[in-house]
Amino acid sequence: MSVVPVFLYHAVSDDPPPWLAPFTVSPRTFTEHLDVIADNGLTVIPLRRLVTALLGGPPPPPRSAVLTFDDGYADFASTVAPLLLDRGLAATLYVTTGAPGGFGRPSGGGPFPYVAALSWRQVRELDAAGFEIGGHSKTHPQLDTLPQESVREEVAGCKREIEDVLGHQVVSFAYPHGYSSGAVRARVREAGWTSAAAIRAASAFSTQRDDPLMFARLMVRADTGRERFMRWTRGEGAPVAPFAEGAATRGWRAYRRTRAAVGLPYRALRA
């Protein structure tokens, strides 16, 4: 069965704040990645083509890839979208709707310190241009450490806010930091999201047998070298989903929950 690299980007910028720099690639590097994808014969498909396959529909075309972007930084509109539109490439943008400081303004704290987020006007324009808009929660918490009512508001409230702005249904979700659990996934399904993007510890390829509510992605970071990226485009160099949640993952979740319960939450890195 063919593997599908679902690439995960965050920011594409030459001047990110220090906290975001490890998860940022430069516009030049991003352009090189698009060239490598094309040169290696991959076809970039909309996320919905993969999700259709995960839900039992026809398989995606051979040698497919998917582009996804988390958080909703302003550089998607200024830098990423023009590059993708020029090449006719699809992408899914997962936005966090409740960034402190106001969506569309640089934030002074919280999950997005000192970086500009997209405005709702820009989100509407990107939607109209053909990019899929998905949800990434309201405040970017570690969902698997929250009480269930808080999880409901994060995942369902995010969906309501985006749909109110766009005027149509949105169905694609991405877990903040990649963290989920069986209970979190149940709340995601309950809210009406039909797919949810995860991040496995070492990054992984998706396949047609992957779980639509925790499908695997490959996180592209500042330290993702050209050779590693090229191996990913050849279907090499990463585990292949699906695979069962291991004891280490369950133990890590228990540790983070314990810290949250005593008022000393683990400060997750960006993802």
UniProtKB/TrEMBL annotation:
Protein name stated in the entry: Polysaccharide deacetylase family protein
Annotated TM spans: none
Cell compartment(s), UniProt: Secreted
Domain NodB homology: from-to ranges: 63-271
Enzyme class: hydrolase
Record-level Gene Ontology MF annotations: hydrolase activity
Coiled coil: none
Keywords: Hydrolase, Signal
Top-level taxonomy: Bacteria, Bacillati, Actinomycetota, Actinomycetes, Kitasatosporales
EC number, UniProt record: 3.-.-.-
Chief site of localization: secreted
Gene3D superfamilies in the cross-refs: Glycoside hydrolase/deacetylase
Top-level taxon in the UniProt lineage: Bacteria
Database matches in InterPro entries: Glyco_hydro/deAcase_b/a-brl (IPR011330), NODB_dom (IPR002509), Polysacch_Deacetylase (IPR051398)
